[in-house]
Amino acid sequence: MTSAQILWFILIGVLFSGFFFLDGFDFGIGMAIKFFGRNTAERDTIIQTIGPHWDGNEVWLITAGGAMFASFPMWYASLFSGYYIVLFLILVALIFRGVSFEFRANMKTETWRNFWEWAATIGSFCAAFLFGMMFTSMIEGVPMDAKGNIFGSFTTYVNWFSLVGGVAVTLMCLIHGLNFLQLKTLGTLRDRAQSWNKVLYPVLIVGEVLFVVLLYLSTDFFDRKPVSTWSILIVLVLLTLIAWWGVLKAHNWTAFIASGLSLISIVVLIFNGLFPRVMIATNSAHSILIKDASSSPYTLHIMTIVAFSVLPIVLIYFIWSYWVFYKRLKSPKAA
Amino acid sequence: MLNAGLTVLGLSRFQFAMTTVFHFFFVPFSIGLAVIVAIMETMYVIKKEVTYKKMAQFWGKIFLYSFAVGVVTGIIQEFQFGMNWSEYSRFMGDIFGAPLAIEALAAFFLESTFIGLWMFTWERFKPWIHALFIWLVALGSSLSAVWILAANSFMQNSVGFAINKTTGRVVMTSFSAVIKNPQLWLELPHVLMGAGITASFVIAGCCAWRLLKKDHVTFYRKSLNVALVIGLIASLGSMAAGDFQTRYLINQQPMKFAAMEGLYKNSTNKGNWAVYSSFNTKQHKTTASLDVPYVLNILSYHRLSGTVKGQNAINKEMHATYDKKFGKDMNYYVPTKTLFWSFRLMAVSGGLFALVAIVGLFFNRRKSQLIMRQRWFLYIMGLMLWLPFLVNTAGWFITELGRYPWVVYGLLTIADAVSPTSTVGSLLFTNIVYFMLFAGLGLVMIVLSHRTLKAGPDGVEMNGYSSDDTTGKVEDPYGTEAFNHD
Questions:
Q1: Could you tell me which InterPro entries the record lists for this protein (chain A) (predicted)?
Q2: Contacts of B76 in chain A (CB under 8 A)
Q3: Chain A residues with CB inside 8 Å of B57's CB?
Q4: Do B479 and A327 touch (CB under 8 A)?
């Protein structure tokens, strides 16, 4: 394993972290449209909070996918072909979510506006859930041949652990979205988001405990890396508690950053557990290792130069675009 | 063409064709429209006439629909390589992934961030800064074309690589060779010019329909002028780029070129160019054709004499070159009918676009009312709105089907590239769902654009926020409240 390979393994983790932190609250806001917003005016405001941002946030996923293809083609090929139907459903969910905001804003009848609101809500739910399910089932280990082809059955993808993982990620995204809403609105929406999260946090903590138990039973993380795995889990729980405290005390920034970091800590947990593998096979001889999965040293070298020269510029205007829209939105008056 | 039936290979190919063709309805339209909207807004900055601001907002709205559909169908493309073509991804990962990742990093971030800024900050910044945002969107979308075509060009003409002896896979040896690929720099101008044609003739077509109803005559005539100027430049540029490309093809991918010209036998020195041909593709024969002398040589070599190799001769050469590695059973003939007619559609349309643009600009001179009286011309222009989409598709049919049987020219066959894990059942399912989804999205796209057009420039809302009719000022949803706790 070379240092370039390790660097790119980390970079893929960073890109997925960016995706879950940023699109995570988009998914949460998306779910909130139908279940949290009570009327059209409220839903307008809810969507406005992510209006200028969601598209850029989704690019983190596209970049993560592209970077995985570029730096670890064997990983990309096995994961994407092996998770065929799951990824297909994710794509459908992202398609509905993606067009819904633009289409909804231009619908003239209540029925069709309603349709696209549901498209955003269900799309966001499914995307978050399926991503959670995919990554959880991936770390359980999948039936794979020596060439890296995954021949899974239904239970490879859908089992108790992956379902709990899916629900946990969905819940984390929803909470994260509501924290974002508290940060970006004033008035009734902000107050309601706070009271929702006051209830949702205890549920999440139960979910996290269940997740840890199943993680212990279903993966080799605790055998192979007890110290780091436990440390990350403790950080996860601490972040959850901090975020909960932030919600209770109406410290919107604290709550938002902590809920975002707790999503990132899930990514860190997965990448830490995977290392030095990229795919875990049920027959451990077939697991794909970082050292075998990567592109050539030359390609990694080129990609490193590109990433470190372009990414800083991207980050500058990306963050600036959030700065432009930093203001809070007024909640519409009750109809 | 895609006659492999209900097999994993056939369905995977069908899915790739369907998703890329649908995606590529919107890509050139968005690239071109971004540039045109940027030009309109720049004219507002320079001339300070509100009409140009309204123009940017009005056509910008249609741009946003197209952009949204383009984005969501684009993710399918990136995922598809791994999902359906995992053997391809393994074989090509070392080279193909890099441009894809750079595309996301250098182009998609730019595009998506600044489109968000552009949509919601009409009154927040000085007009020239706001115009800069849409220029950056245009830059981002054009850059994305550079990188994805760099990836595609390697599949057409492999450069800067070696084959790893132990794995048998492609390894990059020179990144600069990959991006200096002559194929890329011939393909790119043609694609960008095609994008210009697409956007300008869709706008021109929309204007024509409204002018037939005598609706907002000044507004649509001004829009028409901008569109046709771009349309003229783009169609001339596209023809020139296409000419360079074809002449390059003769040596680089002779089979593709021979099929475009419908040649089975070598051409004679007379240079007969078939206006029409019918083929017996099983026996590799041209059964009838209507020929014009010399045109083939003029098109191919810019001179009167010369010969072009036919598919039969090239097939023999290919067998001689590749039989050792790929076996004797390979079929090197490409889908002749599709390529032949696609090429004719493309070439004829190129000329037609230029002609219509010239005539349109003449009729639409500022002091003349000709354009309003020549209703037949408005009908033609109105119908031509759909033509660029057909022509773009035809162009890609030539490029991609003409590469048969290779997915990477001379290195990997399409049949060897599919995912071993794919099943007919799951592919059938996903094909059906994609098809319905695309039909739905296309329909909404058309309905919304039509509605926007009918509502006219006075009814423009930017994302649900109304734009003032006389000043073009847009309500600012983010400008009303300061960041403080109440």
A1: Cyt-d_oxidase_su2
A2: 91, 95
A3: none
A4: yes
Q: Which of residues 358-417 of B touch A (CB under 8 A)?
A: none
Contacts of A68 in chain B (CB under 8 A): 97
- B484: pLDDT strictly greater than 50: no
Q: Which of A81, A148, A295 sits opposite B94 (nearest CB)?
A: A295
Q: What is the mean pLDDT of residues A132-150?
A: 94
The reply to whether residue A314 touches residue B421, judged by beta carbons under 8 angstroms, is: no
Adjacent-strand bridge partners of B119: none
What is the domain range of residue B79? 12-249+337-466
Rounded to an integer, what distance in angstroms lies between the CA atom of residue B399 and that of residue B157? 12
At residue B440 the predicted structure's pLDDT band, cuts being 50, 70 and 90, is: very high
Structure tokens at A127: 């995307």
- Residues 451-470, chain B, touching A (beta carbon < 8 A): 451-452, 461, 463-464
Give pLDDT tens digits for B77-115.
999 999 999 999 999 999 999 999 999 999 999 999 999
Task: Judge whether B6 lies within some domain.
Answer: no
This prediction's pTM: 0.93
Q: What ipTM describes this predicted complex? A: 0.94
* Number of domains composing chain B: 1
Sign of the Cα torsion B262, B265, B266, B269 reads negative
Which phi and psi angles does B465 have, rounded to 5°? Answer: -110, 125
Question: What DSSP state is assigned to residue A284?
Answer: G
Q: What is the identity of the amino acid at A14?
A: V
Please tell me the predicted confidence (pLDDT) of residue B389: 95
